[in-house]
Amino acid sequence: MKHDSRAAHLAPAASFRDLFTPKLVTVLREGYGLTNLRADAISGLTVAIVALPLSMAIAIASGVSPDRGLYTAIVGGFLVSLLGGSRFQIGGPAGAFIVLIAASVQRHGLDGMLLATFMAGVIMLAIGFLRLGTFIKFIPYPVTIGFTAGIGIIILSSQLRDLFGLTLSGPEPAEFLPKMQALVSAANTVTPAAVGIAIATIGIILGLRRWKPSWPGLLIAVVATSVAVPLFGLGVETIGSRFGGIPRTLPAPHLPEFSIAKMQAVLPDAIAFALLGAIESLLSAVVADGMSGRRHRSNCELVAQGVANMGSAMFGGVPVTGTIARTATNVRAGAHGPVSGILHAAFLLGFMLIAAPLAAHIPLAALAGVLVVVSINMIEREAIKALVSSSWGDAVVLGVTFLLVVFRDLTEGIVVGFVLGALLFIHRMSTAISIDADQPDSANRRKKPYDPHDADDPETVIYRISGAFFFGTASMVSSVLDRIADQRKNFIIDFSNAPMIDSTAANVVEGAARKAHKAEVRILITGASPQIRRMLVANGVHHPLVEFFPSIEDALAEVHHAPG
């Protein structure tokens, strides 16, 4: 993969300080005033209001008490923002971990889960300092969408018991099919009041999201249903009746109990925590980059996530990762930098110190309703539709990953999905090579590349993609596309020498095009074969974000004759 451009040059290798300086230090060096503090305080409070019910709901769904979700959000959120490589990342408990945490607690008990969390932090520290964060980005886009949708289904199934107020004859199974069988067998124990509370919670959240999106729908829904339970005398289970309430202070930090035998036993869980935490946090940082136009430091972010997981375990919390929804809320609320995340943790601590006794009255059906909304949002329907329509191979990778995550194991789903993605890439490359061999015009075009010096226009830059553009090269090209798109008014991306493109790469182009469109930069795509163009269009790369032309010459002619 290479590019030709008068504006794009190879950057010098980044130093250790450049790679691992926290974004907080960068923001403070730029100058930090009262206006910035006010913006961060407002966004931090907004995120804290979202995180308060969500953290407790995720903890309960994971098979631990709700206070441990708050410990995770407070300690983990503080450390992620203090040390992280993203300006806007919000750390805390995430729905993606629910199935892993619940299985770990069942196998090894609470102490074993805490030890696995601490060990996961050490593993993430090593990944970050060894600068291996880039390799995590090699996971194909269909795998990411498939396992995220699978986790959404698992979270949804885990909430059915509290959603319907069911009474099971024994412990709720962790596996999907046995769980569903147990829930169906308990269908005659449905509590109508619990169903009503859950429906009201979901209705309030979705209604406010549509008509008053700036209002804290999650918190309003939980508060309203918590008031309704005693007001109407509804006999539903609450946090107080199941867990006895929430402590008003953080516990004293201490290392998890460990021994060599116990460390060996929980090592698979620790690896799973570390792998999922790294993937989820970097995905969240990428989302924040796309929304804000900034660039995160992936290895610095992994180091921060490692420290945060170690800290969370020492305070009795669950695994920490970057949370996509809360991070997006932070950006939309106008955050200036990591101080917002630090203040979000401080606000949560204040809520716990002041309002902990009130949390005992929160109905579990309301928290189940919150997680139902979260699980539905995790199933990215538009992305799934695009992948299924763009390529049968991507559809297979997505489907297999999804089914393995739901019916087998999350780690197994990621590994098998990655292997299938690699095999699909090999197949596409072999097909692309055989097609090019029968097209001498294409071969001749590669022998006589376009001379970028002919584009003597300071407002136009040409980026030539040469070779296979797939998930393995997508992260590298993404950073270059973003950097170049900030420098010119016209940005030509030439695919004449690209034999193939996969959905991961097409998604990268879509993100760069969307960012450029917001900045009023004109994107012109040239030389795309019918197969490449179909893949791009299926993933959202079309008008008005981009314009297609047969060649670079045609695109330059259009640019030179454009009005203004």
Automatic annotation (TrEMBL):
It comes from the Bacteria. Keywords: Membrane, Transmembrane, Transmembrane helix. It is found in: Membrane. It is a multi-pass membrane protein. Gene3D superfamilies: STAS domain. The chain crosses the membrane at residues 41-61, 73-101, 113-132, 139-160, 180-206, 218-236, 270-290, 345-374, 386-407, 413-437. Residues 450-559 form the STAS domain. Its main location: membrane. The keyword Ribosomal protein does not apply. This is SulP family inorganic anion transporter. It comes from Aquamicrobium zhengzhouense.
